[in-house]
Design goal:
This protein has 463 residues and is mainly alpha-helical. The protein has 16 helices and no strands. It has a single domain, classed as Cytochrome C Oxidase, Chain A (Up-down Bundle).
């Protein structure tokens, strides 16, 4: 249960993340079906209808994807990369296994409680108070392992990826505690204050955790997959700190105008880390683009990086009041969030799994053909999914601004776009099945060589 074998905890986190990728994926397809064919809900037995309602399945889908799939893939990546950048064994493999058990207990608790209506009812902060406490404990265990490994490192240089891991976990902890009002079982503030704090938390859940740690993973993957030193260590340091913002989600709300204007300024500053990373990305990729045609992991990473740039452009645009007026509360925002979560960070996680799992298992990936199917089905499916939602959002916004088109007429006009959303989701889901099956078959194959210590190759970041 609490093995001390090097790499065993990282492997476990990766495997668990794949399971939790499937569960919210199925829930997402159910939700897409509800939107396209609402009448199917009439066939749900009355006894379980509340449990399977859209209002309960949607937060379940979101929390399992955020904390079950992507967070565990990130933690698996952190535990995989730490020994390789420090040239030291993980501070405590057993502690990492305890981290794994408690993390999956938390996610399983969310799977049970959210469909039953046990929720705090705040976006991305729906988990019940005991599960909030578990998440805080899990982040503390993760921080202990990160700091303990770095302190005992044999590599004198502290790579930027390590700084990102430290910063991401340290900032995520207060963001989550304040955003979820961890000291109060009710988990909510009063009036407009709750709205302001909630969206500060929502945005910085992505900035502090998925972006800051994600860039740390990316700065390891980029030189590793290209077999080329990172273009600029200095640029990587410029891009270390993400942008703290959130209130631009609530422009035209009762929030104070000064706070809205301030958050717009901070949102615009996102251009700094975005530009620093993208210059590093394109300069490092120079001369390596043909390699992406053969290396599916590198292709996933490169595609995710380009999508990440688009996410940042959209995010800055949405912080301007005029543009926000057209897209706020529409399906555009749903498309934008899936662009960030799936087409950016999940694509990086796919590349990470394809790199790490064969190395941890000491065997090649089971099928390159399945990797190709995974890439093309997921990429094309998500493009269809996101474009359909962006188009639907622009139609919604335009219709609402006329103040003369009946609301239900707008809803009916969106049906073709919801159909495209469902088809795109089905294609991406088929790609995910190829991914999970491929990793599962890889894990089942006999090891090619005896176990060795995994603390070896350091990522070649440039100075």
């Amino acid at each position: 249960m609490l093995s001390s074998e090097p790499g065993s905890a990282s492997r476990r986190f990766f495997y668990a993340s794949l399971f939790w990728l499937l569960v919210p994926g199925v829930l997402g397809l159910i939700l897409a079906t509800f939107l396209y064919l609402p009448a199917v809900q009439d066939y749900i037995p009355l006894a379980i209808k509340p449990t399977l309602s859209f209002g309960r399945l949607r937060p379940t889908h979101v929390n399992l994807a955020v904390f079950g799939w992507l967070s565990q893939a990130y933690i698996g990546g952190i535990y995989f990369i730490l020994p390789r950048l420090t040239r030291a064994r993980l501070y405590s493999e057993r502690l990492a296994h305890a981290n794994w058990w408690l993390w999956n207990l938390m996610v399983a608790g969310a799977l049970v409680t959210l469909p039953l209506g046990q929720t705090q009812g705040r976006e991305y902060a729906e988990m019940a108070w005991p599960l909030d406490l578990l998440l805080v404990l899990n982040m503390l265990l993760l921080m202990a392992n990160i700091w303990g490994t770095i302190v005992r490192r044999k590599e004198p240089k502290v790579y930027v990826s390590l700084w990102n891991f430290v910063a991401g976990t340290m900032i995520m902890l207060p963001v989550y505690m304040v955003g979820n009002k961890i000291w109060d079982p009710a988990g909510a503030y009063t009036g407009m204050n709750d709205n302001i704090v909630n969206y500060f938390y929502v945005h910085n859940l992505f900035n502090a955790w998925f972006t800051t740690v994600g860039i740390g993973l990316a700065l390891y993957l980029l030189p590793k997959l290209t077999d080329k030193p990172l273009y600029s260590h200095g640029l990587a340091l410029w891009g270390l700190w993400s942008v703290w913002t959130g209130q631009h989600h609530q422009l035209y709300s009762p929030a104070p105008d000064w706070l809205e204007y301030l958050t717009v300024v901070f949102s615009m500053l996102a251009a700094v880390p975005t530009t620093a990373f993208m210059v590093n990305f394109f300069m490092t990729m120079r001369g390596r683009w043909p390699r992406a045609g053969q290396d599916v992991a590198l292709r996933f990473f490169a595609t995710g990086a380009i999508f990440w740039a688009l996410t940042c452009v959209q995010g800055v645009a949405q912080s301007f009041r005029n543009f926000s007026l057209h897209v706020h509360l529409t399906n555009w925002v749903v498309g934008h969030s899936h662009l960030a979560f799936v087409a950016d960070y999940s694509f990086w996680a796919f590349a990470l799994v394809y790199l790490a799992v064969p190395e941890l298992m000491r065997r090649p990936i089971y099928s390159r053909r399945l990797m190709e199917w995974h890439y093309w089905l997921t990429t094309l499916g998500m493009v269809v999914f996101m474009v359909a939602l962006w188009a639907a959002g622009l139609i919604q916004g335009q219709n609402w601004l006329t103040n003369s088109i009946p609301f239900l007429e707008t809803v009916r006009s969106l049906q073709p776009y919801f159909a495209a959303r469902l088809l795109g989701g089905l294609a991406a889901g088929a790609g995910i099945l190829c991914f999970v099956y491929n990793v599962w078959q890889t894990a089942r194959q006999p090891a090619a060589e005896p176990a060795v210590q995994p603390v070896l190759a350091v990522s070649r970041e440039g100075d």
